Amino acid sequence: MDKALLDKLKPYAGRHYVVMVRCSTDLQTETSIPTQLSDIHAACQAAGLVHAGDDMILDGKTGSKPGNRNDISELLTRKQVKNDYDLLIDLVEDRFTRAGPEHGMWAEFEFLRNGVTVLHLRSDAPEGPFASVIKTLKYEAAKQQSKSTSLRSTGGIQDAIEAGYVLASTHTNYGCYRLYLSSDGKPLHIIRDMRDGTQQRLDAVTREYRETLGTVGGKTGRYRKQKKERPMLVPGEEKEVSAVRLIFKRRWLDGRGGNRVAKELRALGIPAPYGGKWTQRQVDVIAENPVYCGWNISGGSTAALYNKRHRDGPQPVHVDPVLWATRENLPVELRQPEDWTIQEQPYMKDYLPEALRDVASAQIKALRERRARGEVADRVRNTHMDSLYLLTGLLRTKQDGTLLKGQNCGPRGYKTRYYAHPIARKDPVAAGFPNTTFRAEVLEKAVLSTLSETLLAMSDLRDELRLAVEAAVNARKPASPMALADLNRKLDGVKAQIKVTLDILTPETKEEGQAKLGELSQKRRELEALIRQTKESEQAPVLDVDATVESLVQRLKDLGAQLETLPVYTLRQVLVAMTDSMTVDMFTREVTMTLKIPPMAISDAKTALSDLCLQTSSGSSTVLGAQNTPSVIATIHCTHARVSQKQCFACQRVKRAA
Known about the structure:
Blueprint: H1 3-9, E1 16-23, H2 32-47, E2 50-51, E3 56-59, H3 70-81, E4 87-90, H4 93-96, H5 101-113, E5 117-120, H6 131-163, E6 176-181, E7 187-193, E8 198-203, E9 209-214, E10 230-235, H7 238-253, H8 258-267, H9 280-287, E11 295-298, E12 301-302, E13 307-308, E14 315-316, H10 321-326, E15 333-334, E16 341-344, H11 354-372, E17 396-397, E18 405-409, E19 416-420, H12 428-431, E20 437-439, H13 440-456, H14 462-475, H15 481-503, H16 510-539, H17 545-562, H18 568-578, E21 579-584, E22 591-596, H19 599-603, H20 609-617, E23 632-643, E24 646-653
Parallel strand pairs: 1-2, 1-3, 1-4, 4-5, 17-21
Antiparallel strand pairs: 6-7, 6-10, 7-8, 8-9, 11-16, 12-15, 13-14, 18-19, 19-20, 21-22, 22-23, 23-24
């Protein structure tokens, strides 16, 4: 035993002690924790100290965030309640804390105030009048070492992600396995996460079982990636893959919400990722994960303390000292799309059917971008987007502009779908017109049939399409540098007002200040959207009007040919994207529908229009977003008649004047 350690502990012989040991990551738990414990206990026993039992073991606990250090309060409470120890021993200062001298000296004083001496066993800080000064420097050195480690590790991880040696996914995703490749791309083995603390090693080709790694409920013994191995995600168990495909189809093609999909999965008896019942949150996490489309985002968010990853090198982070001192976890910051690192996952490209993958990928990307910009999604007024009422949200009355709603009428077992006015249905006098109802199936069939005929006859509407394309081209003309500078100046002014409002916010002015902040935040979002659209218009390629018109003619014909075979949700989105207005006269029952071209269809000449309508419905950004007055390309007029006491509608496209 080291004589210097015995001499250091000799004055404390006979006193009761508790040991505090700490390591920052789970990977260090197997080696660092046992080494610290054995080192301290061996010295204490040799010096005649009495172990009070129940050491404080902090495995996987960072010492840089004082807000997550509940161990200190637990030890102080133990002292106050049990009073079974008066000496707290750790190895050196950086095991006690890495949060700097403010935290270290405060914690030592709190222990001392409660009758506990903190002893750093292997510290070389001298005793004497200036011991506290040296100890302060030791704590600051520990903090600076954490900052240095952060700088190196942040840059190293970013390089490893870009080189393919580290996955952007921290955990193996549901319905996936991890395939490990050698440096020359040769498959080595597959690791299957059993989600109980254990893993299975499988053959890379046959997927035959090889061995089990880890322990149930533990963190030790799991597979450790070797330095030159390249991990890739691959499709996992077939039952889970089928569940993921169902989730994506229901969310992105059928338009169902997470809660409704979770109910369906529970009804089918499919177990949730960790057992039990599916929840809305679990469904949403899977449905919004781009890894199932063959790519993933690294650096999409950060809760960094000192540095955050970036392609151009680590970027420093400035954290509010109050949050750092009090919060267990720092707030998560969503980063802008230009700061993302996109990691391709080639083995996941065929995880979903191609048509579903393309739609889901575009919508997930648009969703992530909107969230990163702080944009609030528009409220979905029709939550049953896959219902059979195709015209809900589109069909308005000519008299007061109210949207008609779908309803079922008739005796049980013989229900018929109708569209009705919500007020006139209850009180025709108050509405000012009769309670006129419209057979949904009859009206929808007539509208879709005429819409299909109109799309197939697009060759006759080249002049209208040309006007729409020319309007889009004019909307894309880049703004002058002076206009962009003026927008930036206004944005800076709004940001300054937000800062001033936050600075003067007090409990007395909280309600008024929050309202003001809401108004300013809305202005900021509007200005940021205008600036973004202006910059995008500058980068947009020049459109060839003739080629664009010909492409639109062909793709609109293709859409007309497949219109009746589209899924209900997709068909609804096509109607939403292409309908400029749809009005009905409550007295004559005549319906007028005007058609427009979705702006995105003009800038994207490759994607099928049905898929583009889905993407447009998700709110994806487009440089044509500033086009507020879409060009009408056709008008459909429907007249009502009764044949053998049954409603019928005769619809036709209104021909333009010669």
